[in-house]
Design goal:
Elements lengths: L5 E8 L4 H12 L4 E7 L4 E6 L6 H10 L3 E2 L2 E8 L4 H12 L4 E7 L4 E6 L6 H10 L3 E2 L5 E2 L3 H33 L4 H19 L1 H12 L5 H21 L11 H25 L1 H7 L5 E6 L2 E6 L8 E4 L8 E7 L1 E4 L1 H4 L5 E3 L4 E2 L4 E2 L4 E7 L5 H14 L3 H32 L3 H14 L2 H21 L2 E3 L2 H7 L4 E5 H5 E12 L8 H11 L6 H12 L9 E5 L3 E6 L2 E6 L1 H6 L5 H12 L3 E7 L2 E12 L3 H10 L3 E5 L4 H11 L3 E3 L7 H10 L4 E5 L5 H6 L2 E4 L13 E3 L5 H35 L4 H4 L5 H20 L9
Parallel strand pairs: 20-27, 20-29, 27-28, 29-30, 30-31
Antiparallel strand pairs: 1-3, 1-4, 2-3, 5-7, 5-8, 5-9, 6-7, 10-11, 10-12, 12-18, 13-16, 13-18, 14-15, 14-17, 19-31, 21-26, 22-23, 23-24, 24-25, 25-26
Helix pairs in contact: 5-6, 5-9, 6-8, 6-9, 7-8, 8-9, 8-14, 9-28, 10-15, 12-15, 13-14, 13-15, 14-26, 14-28, 15-26, 15-28, 16-26, 18-19, 22-26, 26-28
Length: 808
């Protein structure tokens, strides 16, 4: 049997609390063939891994539906041109229905329309249009009517419905409250009138709670709706008996005001919660909405505007000033500044010219660019970022597991506490039935499992979104949590702290009878190294070319292994190399010896030059430190983190680089195969360690570290190694990642503290534990207000993380 695994993302509707998410996960995991199922309540998405040879997508979706929830499908109606007979319609239907992600396609030949139901996580609207065009028909864009964002529209519909229910509930509750205090009628008449006002609130406005409770009961679980239904139904049933059979309870007072106020407060809380949830996912939606819709493509010499989904690798694309770059590619013509802030977080436009890479979704600012597409569709940087963000949102941080376990036992425990509290007060203490019912209702209503369930995922959603905005891609909730525990940050040297490419750093001219200028010295060195393939020689030639020096071919060229080169330039014999080359040619280097030693102690490679037997100067080449490396190290040390440099270079060079950036501890002369062992040794010292590298040569060390941070990935953001991926080649983003983790964990801790403290404090209060001291019971109406505010408080607190700004 095939062991292949597929992954799908489904948008889920109808969830109201963490138990809903747990119910769906539990139902899916029971399916044979489903290897992993994670439901994110805050994002309202399910991420499912399954074996398509064992179970199909329909069965998965049916399981979610049978559990009492909805899989949100998008629907679109498109006008189609070019059909001449019913077979044309069948051709389109067949092509569309064969596509993964299309649930059903029906072509109405008489009206020339096609109705398509699909999952936007698997197939886009533009891809559907392309299928129609590919089989030879035309999509008439101007007459198109479509639902572009079913998820957003579903959220707006939900908010509108909550507003309507709340208005109706409040409109009926206010008269009940007035009748409780200022009724001109008899008690019997007042109770009947309140019954007539309260019943629609209980069973029409509150029907959503009964549906939610039924779903839980059907799935052998209990949720927040169960508590609300039990509490309000108890109040309504008791009050109804008092109204129509007053002698049963000796003409006691009714609870109609309590049941309607509870429903009103809870609806208000749900409305605020829905609005706040929309804000927490703002950063994610912003990323997903970045992609350009169309591209100007040149094919066969003709420029035409096409949907971005139809762009192919190798296409030539034109982007004018002020337009979005549609896909990733390489510039073949033109010059411009490109604003890459949406991808990298860098606010200053980046200059682009022939040979440079451009990233889809970035903005062309000043000039026209013509580039060749290299990555399209799901391979673009933006698509990979979205995929990483979705994976991170679907993962669970370790801290969330405690909340999940607690919420799993929460509702049954609350029902038990409420029942026992009422029985104790009634039978053991001897309080009245009304007193005991008040306790029962208050305990059921005040308890809030949603605050526990939302505490972690809402904060992680905002944190992951803010990271992506700043060019920091966090692959999982676990990585986000672990980063704040770091005690040591280990940097690879070459390509991480340094640029990874040798550069000319010093040109020293010796004092002679006829001294050369610095430019002459550089020109001679470049001519000598013109045909060299050595990195140091290439660095000299590159520097001379950048300075505009003319680099002719040498007259003669002799390479001296292990020493340098001997060349003839304009009749003069020029030597360029190390001390051995000068000694073997009896050249006195006394004038430059001290300077050469100084440069070598700085970790630089110094090359001596002699012309016609006399030392004329030296050129130093080194792998230079990146612009912001020292600033990043300083910021990390201010955060009380130990900063370590790991390199295969010799101790002297390593110490020189470390001194430049402020690193105190150096692990030098470490072979690539031994880097992971060095990380293990640091972990054995009790340190939580982050390894920062380029994600390629450092893969084993990145994997061994508690957190692997891959730097400077550019458009290749989906690299396997690294728990955190930094798009820019800027070490300050390591600081940003750790600060973001710390800020997110602060919000999670605040949320969990509030959720646990709220329940720990108010449940005993509602149960009457403090009644002997206070002499007053906790009114169920106040309990409803408190419960409604608790989950809103958690979600709103998490959304404050949107204000996060790195401190560098």
């Amino acid at each position: 049997m095939s062991q292949k695994t597929k992954k799908i993302v489904l948008n889920i509707g109808g969830m109201s609390c963490i138990n809903c998410a747990r119910t769906i996960e539990k139902a899916l995991k029971k399916l044979n063939g489903v290897t992993q199922a994670t439901v994110n309540l805050a994002a309202e998405k399910a991420l499912i891994d399954y074996n398509p040879d064992v179970v199909d997508q329909k069965t998965i979706e049916d399981t979610i539906t049978q559990a009492g929830y909805q899989v949100i499908h998008e629907k679109v109606s498109l006008q189609v041109g070019g059909m001449t007979c019913i077979n044309c319609a069948k051709t389109i239907e067949k092509a569309l229905n064969a596509k993964e992600g299309v649930y059903g396609a029906a072509v109405i030949f008489a009206t020339e329309r096609v109705l398509v139901e699909y999952n936007s996580e698997q197939i886009s609207l533009a891809a559907i249009k392309k299928v129609i065009r590919d089989v030879g028909y035309e999509v008439v864009e101007l007459q198109q009517k479509s639902v572009q964002d079913a998820e957003a529209k579903a959220r707006q519909r939900h908010i509108r419905r909550l507003k309507l229910l709340l208005v109706v509930s409040v409109a009926l509750t206010i008269p009940i409250m007035l009748l409780m205090w200022f009724s001109p009628l008899s008690m019997e008449q007042t109770n009947i009138l309140m019954f007539l006002l309260a019943t629609p609130v209980q069973f029409i406005v509150g029907w959503t709670f009964y549906v939610g409770a039924y779903k839980g009961l059907r799935n052998k679980t209990a949720n927040m709706d169960t508590l609300i239904v039990m509490g309000t139904s108890t109040a309504w049933i008791y009050s109804t008996i008092v109204t129509f059979a007053p002698e049963v309870f000796h003409h006691a007072a009714v609870f109609f005001d309590t049941s309607t106020m509870i429903i009103s407060f809870i609806l208000a809380g749900k409305l605020l919660d829905a609005i706040a949830k929309g804000r927490t996912s703002e950063a994610i939606r912003k990323i997903m909405g970045l992609q350009a819709k169309t591209a100007r493509v040149i094919r066969d010499g003709v420029e035409s505007e096409l949907p971005v989904e139809e762009v192919q690798v190798g296409d030539t694309i034109v982007v004018r000033p002020g337009e979005k770059i549609p896909v990733d590619g390489t510039v073949i013509e033109g010059y411009s500044g490109v604003d890459e802030k949406v991808i990298t977080g860098e606010s200053i436009p980046v200059e682009k010219r022939k040979g440079d890479q451009v990233i889809g979704a970035t903005m062309n600012k000043t000039g026209m660019l013509k580039f060749q597409a290299t990555k399209v569709g799901k391979d673009t940087a933006l698509a990979q970022i979205i995929r990483l963000v979705e994976d991170a949102l679907s993962s669970k941080a370790p801290v969330q597991r405690l909340a999940d376990i607690a919420s799993g036992y929460f509702v049954p425990a609350i029902i038990t506490v409420a029942t026992l509290s009422a029985l104790v007060w009634y039978f053991l203490v001897g309080e009245s039935l009304i007193f005991s019912l008040t306790v029962f209702i208050a305990v059921l209503i005040v308890a809030c499992p949603c605050a526990l369930g939302l505490a972690t995922p809402t904060a992680i959603m905002v944190g992951v979104g803010k990271g992506a905005e700043n060019g920091v891609l966090i692959k999982s909730g676990e990585a986000l949590e672990t980063a704040h525990k770091l005690r040591a940050v280990v940097f690879d040297k070459t390509g991480t702290i340094t640029k990874g490419e040798p550069e000319v750093t010093d040109i020293i001219v010796a004092e002679t009878d006829k001294p050369l200028t610095q430019n002459q010295l550089l020109q001679y060195a470049a001519i000598a190294e013109k045909n060299s393939e050595h990195p140091l020689g290439e660095a000299i030639v590159k520097k001379a070319t950048a300075n505009g020096e003319k680099i002719d071919d040498p007259d003669d060229f002799i390479a001296v292994p292990g020493q340098g080169v001997e060349v003839k330039i304009s009749g003069s014999m020029v030597l360029l190399g190390n001390r051995k080359l000068m000694e073997s040619n009896n050249v006195n280097i006394g004038q430059v010896e001290a300077k050469m030693t100084t440069l070598e102690n700085e970790g630089k490679t110094a090359m001596l030059m002699a012309v016609d037997g006399k030392a004329v100067g030296l050129i130093a080449v080194a792998d230079t430190v990146k612009e912001h490396s020292a600033e990043a190290v300083r910021a990390l040390k201010q955060m009380k983190l130990e900063v370590i440099m790991l390199t295969g270079d010799n101790q002297r060079t390593a110490q020189a680089i470390a001194a430049q950036v402020g690193v105190d501890r150096v692990l030098a002369e470490v072979l690539p195969s031994e880097k992971a062992n060095e990380i293990k040794r640091l972990q054995a010292e009790g340190k939580v360690v982050a390894m920062v590298g380029d994600g390629i040569n450092d893969a084993p060390a990145l994997a061994q570290a508690n957190i692997g941070i891959a730097v400077g990935s550019g458009t290749d953001v989906a690299m396997e190694t690294g728990d955190i991926v930094l798009i820019k080649n800027d070490l300050r983003d390591v600081v940003v990642a750790i600060q973001l983790s710390q800020a997110t964990m602060r919000k999670i801790r605040q949320n969990l503290f509030w959720a646990f403290f709220y329940n720990a404090a108010l449940i005993p209060l509602a149960a009457g534990v403090f009644y002997p001291l206070l002499g007053v019971l906790f009114d169920p109406v106040y309990a409803a207000a408190a419960m409604a505010s608790s989950s809103v408080t958690v979600v709103t607190n998490a959304s404050l993380l949107r204000r996060f700004k790195p401190k560098l």
